[in-house]
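Take a look at this chain, tokens included, and explain the fold to me:
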Amino acid sequence: MESKSKKLFEEAKKYLVMGVNSPVRYFKPYPFFVEYARDCYLFDVDGNKYIDYCLAYGPMVLGHRNPYVIKSVKEQLERGTLYGCPTEKEVVLAKEVVKRVPSAEMVRFVNS
């Protein structure tokens, strides 16, 4: 039986450069495609379980599907998703970062 990840990769190569969204996601002969994750584990579309040593390359330090994170995200979703305007929580977070990073006098939040 052919791997579902292999089939998905063949399909992905028709629409995505190298079949993936970034070169770091490419593996030979083909990458495994994740179906879901829990704690420090990834589960692929073929039913395999992996330890996720990368944890999204940094931001998943609490693991996948952390109950505290899920609760906090749900609460925020009830308030809105993206404003494009300043919020009080930005100020609270910036103050906390400046307090905890001695060399940071000010911060700016950006994405890559």
About this structure: The first helix runs from residue 4 to 12. The helical segments are 4-12, 67-79, 88-100. The longest strand covers residues 34-38. Residues 95 and 106 are 8 Å apart (CA to CA).
